């Protein structure tokens, strides 16, 4: 896979494999400097390869998008489009209706998780979150991603090459 060509090779079970668990300090260095990246809001259906092509001119740079956002599993660590989200909810909870009608947790007005008895006490303000709400919020947290400025693409590649040699 083109995405991993700069990652180190390891011997595993008598075979040569790419060490996909290798994590470089470059990500921290680049993303700790706010001028090297900007935020991007994903639309439903935006895939990492499409974002890479849009910002870097090639889907071969999909790994930069995934790397910048600490995405290890591009299926479940990436924003699910709404129709896929509904399919996921249905398969995980049996039905969307069940997920919408059953409580996952309660939060007080400050956003701290509280138990049901505390939630039901008179005078305690809070919100009940269904399984659907909980999963929806987790998915929406993936909507805003970091895009490393294309001016730093070659620097990132160069640093990764050095670190993985």
Brief sketch in words of this structure:
Helices cover 40% and strands 19% of the residues. The chain has 8 helices and 7 strands; from the N terminus they run E-E-H-E-H-H-H-H-E-E-H-E-H-E-H.
List keywords for this structure.
165 residues, 7 strands, alpha+beta, two-stranded antiparallel sheet, single chain, 40% helix
Describe the fold and architecture.
The chain has helices spanning 26-31, 48-56, 62-68, 82-93, 96-101, 116-120, 131-140, 153-163; strands at residues 9-12, 15-18, 37-41, 103-108, 113-114, 126-130, 144-148. It is of the alpha+beta class. The chain has two domains: 2-79 and 143-163, no CATH class; 82-139, no CATH class. The chain has a three-stranded antiparallel beta sheet. A two-stranded antiparallel sheet has the order 1-2. Strands 3-7 form a two-stranded antiparallel ribbon. A hairpin with a 4-residue loop joins strand 4 (103-108) and strand 5. Helix 2 (48-56) packs across helix 3 (62-68). It is elongated, with a radius of gyration of 20 Å. It starts with 8 loop residues before the first strand and ends with a helix. The mean pLDDT is 85.
